[in-house]
């Protein structure tokens, strides 16, 4: 197996098991990457596959973007409370969507092979930054490549390209 030659002889995460992190975004490319990672884990044994999805909740957007400078204090208090509630709702929706997306990805690839350990991570942060952050603690990073950028010569998508150039572990890009 190609990736097996890239892995260190000892797991980097200290758990005694090898770890493959897979970026999942719901696309066909990420489903192919997940299927590849599950196959590699099944073949190798003693491997944890971490499905990782990064999302932006939209909660940083201000629903009431005007100035409060000329409003009475009681109105400001009420508006601030409405905004806080709105932001919490946005975060909850985004997290739930992320968790559902990870479940659907596992179903799309036919489930988990026997003996493979799965972890799921939904992160409220930029997907690329989340993958790169965890690349220092994992043995292998697997991402799909949609390559839908505006340049026809660009073979890798922006997330996969960033991972290839900046990850602190071996990276497999599945097309």
Question: Could you write a compact summary of the structure shown?
Answer:
With 175 residues, the chain is α/β, with parallel strands linked by helices. Helices cover 43% and strands 17% of the residues. It is elongated and about 65 Å long.
Features:
175 residues; Rossmann fold; 5 helices; elongated; alpha/beta
What does this structure look like?
This protein has 175 residues and is of the alpha/beta class. The chain is built from 5 helices and 5 strands. A 5-stranded parallel sheet has the order 3-2-1-4-5, sandwiched between helices. Strand 1, helix 2 and strand 2 form a beta-alpha-beta unit. Helix 4 packs parallel to helix 5. The longest helix has 36 residues, at 73-108.
Number of domains: 1
Give the CATH topology.
Rossmann fold
Question: How many helical stretches?
Answer: 5
Fraction of residues in helices? 40-55%
The CATH class turns out to be Alpha Beta
Radius of gyration: 20 Å
Within CATH, the superfamily carries the name: HUPs
The total count of strands amounts to 5
What number is the mean pLDDT? 85
Q: What string, H for helix and E for strand, traces the elements in order?
A: HEHEHEHEHE
Note the overall shape: elongated
Strand content: 15-25%
Largest sheet: 5 strands, parallel
Structural class: alpha/beta
Oligomer: single chain
């Amino acid at each position: 197996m190609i990736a097996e030659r890239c892995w260190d002889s000892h797991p980097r995460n200290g758990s005694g098991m090898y770890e493959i992190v897979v970026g999942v975004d719901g696309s066909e490319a990420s489903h192919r990457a997940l299927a590849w990672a599950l196959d590699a884990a099944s073949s190798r044994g003693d491997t944890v596959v971490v499905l990782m999805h990064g999302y932006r909740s939209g909660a940083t957007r201000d629903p009431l973007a005007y100035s409060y400078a000329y409003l009475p204090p009681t109105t400001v208090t009420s508006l601030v409370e409405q905004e806080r509630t709105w932001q919490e709702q946005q975060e909850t929706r985004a997290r739930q969507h992320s968790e559902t997306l990870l479940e659907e990805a596992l179903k799309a690839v036919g489930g988990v092979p026997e003996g493979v350990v799965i972890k799921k991570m939904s992160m409220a942060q930029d997907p690329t930054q989340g993958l790169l952050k965890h690349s220092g603690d994992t043995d292998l990073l697997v991402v799909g490549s949609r390559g839908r950028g505006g340049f026809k010569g660009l073979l890798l998508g922006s997330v996969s390209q960033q991972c290839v150039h900046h990850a602190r572990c071996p990276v497999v890009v599945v097309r």
